[in-house]
Fold NAD(P)-dependent dehydrogenase (Short-subunit alcohol dehydrogenase family).
Amino acid sequence: MPSAFRPDAFAGKTVFVAGASSGINLGIAHGFARAGARLALISRTAERIQAAADTITAAGGTAIGMAADVRDYAAVEAALVRAQDELGPIDVVISGAAGNFLAPVVGMSANAFKTVVDIDLLGTFNVFRASFDHLNKPGASLIAITAPQAVNAMMFQAHACAAKAGINMLIKCLAMEWGPAGVRVNGISPGPIADTEGMARLAPTPEMEARYKARLALRDYGTKDDIADAAMYLSSDNARYVTGTILDCDGGSKLGDASADALKKPQ
Ligand code: HXC
Ligand code: NAP
């Protein structure tokens, strides 16, 4: 489906995306690039992030890829400095780096729990905190990628649920502190998105995928373009009065079980 955003909707804007070598975040980067923005991308791996940037330039866009681990504040700061030097002050920041695996708490070391919290929550703090001095203010838009699991507990996801819940509150605190500077801070909570590493880990078999879809009100996975459009809406002038919000783009995921079984009346 074609995006509602025109090819010049973000012309002249600089967009910084953390965790952009694959999946939803790379999809968001492509959406902004198609709408005319210049992209600065980071992830841990130089080869993967350069390959991601190359997919944007091959499609006619402008993108630089930089290796930076979001757990390393100095590395994030250095990437932001280079992004501003080469592409100009930053209009939009997307914080979407994440790590995840299915594990019960008793199958998880303290370091396993800490690893996910460090990438997701501390990483989002680092990306947003380091970006503040490089933003095109007033008017900048910061977006963290959270998940329905921030508010709906899920088995074998204690680390990711806790980290995403922390992100939701960080979004609200920063929206209050940075609103007076003209910086809006919001989140997007994607439901299950097709062709992503996240769903490959959470629903690795066709049977699990079918069960996931059957429980959703809209009965299907979303697409990376759905999330890109949500990010562009939140970063557009149409959302100029929207801050501190978590936009659910999740097919009804957060509502709970909408399967036919759930609707059966007790006999
Ligand atoms: C138990 C595990 C484990 C597993 C790793 N660990 N995998 N414990 N079960 N399946 C433990 C390790 O043993 C180690 O603890 C600690 O975690 C750190 O592991 P490392 O491999 O050293 O970490 P690192 O190299 O930093 O890699 C991070 C990672 C990895 C999260 C473990 O999977 C990764 O790089 N993921 C990035 C891609 C990804 O996950 N994408 C999906 C995002 S989707 P010890 O004690 O042995 O040292 C997503 C879905 C959202 O977030 C919906 C839900 C919120
Ligand atoms: P993905 O493709 O694995 O994306 C995760 C990205 O984070 C990768 O580009 C990875 O790149 C990067 N990354 C991991 N650790 C990093 C670190 N320490 N520093 C910098 N970058 C790091 O997974 P995805 O499924 O598309 O998920 C993207 C986002 O959407 C995540 O925030 C996830 O929680 C959220 N989400 C996904 C779903 C879904 O259905 N998939 C649903 C809800 C929420 P490198 O390996 O190159 O570092």
About this structure: The first strand starts at residue 14 and ends at 18.
